[in-house]
Amino acid sequence: MNAPKTLFLSHGSPMIALEASSASRFLSELGQSLPRPRAVLAVSAHWQGDEFAVGAAAQPRTIHDFFGFPPPLYDMRYPAPGAPDLAAQVAQATGAKVMAGRGLDHGIWTMAKLMWPEADVAVVPVSLSRHATPQQHWDFGKRLAPLLEDGVLLMGTGCATHNLQAYFGQPRDVPAEDWVSAFTDWLAEKVQAGDRQALEDYRRQAPFAVRNHPTDEHLMPLFVAAGAGQGRGRLLHHSVEHGVIAMDAFGWIN
Fold it and tell me: What dotted CATH number matches 6-252?
């Protein structure tokens, strides 16, 4: 089977960089199994701007954009190089604003650290737009698709479900809540069918959509990935942590 050129990965807690889990093992194995990319366009739920933007730092810094975690997590660095030339291509193809000083937030570097632990693959961060709809994020991804040649991989990083109020206090290994399973089953079905209309209307059509995503920024990278993938995706991984945080991953061959 052909390797995907486009991914949507659920990053969950920053602790995924320190603690072994089904999802962390999957990501490590995925990084080993994929052809080594020349560069990664990383679209993160943790970078939202008034407009789409792209980071053009030659050596993007590691951003520790979280609070209350163990000191070893704050000591971690992911010194991957950037790719300013690729960032310029993103800006030209999409109209995204270029931001020279943008680093790698935890949604990006925790995933990349598991997949390419040597930090020897160039990573270019790409933002969401807080004012854009799922349809506009899909169209943004579609404009990125021509750049996914010559070893460039698009990685959307968010979370298949993201209700933090329901997450707090839950042990990692409790079974998935029924309302989480109903949503992830629907999501997997629609992604694998390539049903753009249903996915873009997920907040009305999907079961328990708003309960699983009280705010929608953690699902928006999926729309960018699907737009770049231009077709049916496939489910690469499914697991649920703390009963409510689905760590699903999807890939598109493009």
Answer: 3.40.830.10
For 176, the 3-state DSSP assignment is: coil
Q: How far apart are CA 86 and CA 82, in angstroms?
A: 9
Q: Which residue has the tokens 């030339």?
A: 85
How many CB atoms within 10 Å of residue 214? Answer: 12
- Answer yes or no: are the C-beta atoms of 91 and 134 closer than 8 Å: no
Domain ranges of the chain: 6-252
Counting every residue written for the chain, the total comes to 254
**pTM check: above 0.70:** yes
Confidence of residue 149 (pLDDT cuts 50, 70, 90): confident
The rounded mean pLDDT for the chain is: 96
CA distance 82 to 234: 29
Q: Rounded distance, CA 211 to CA 7, Å?
A: 24
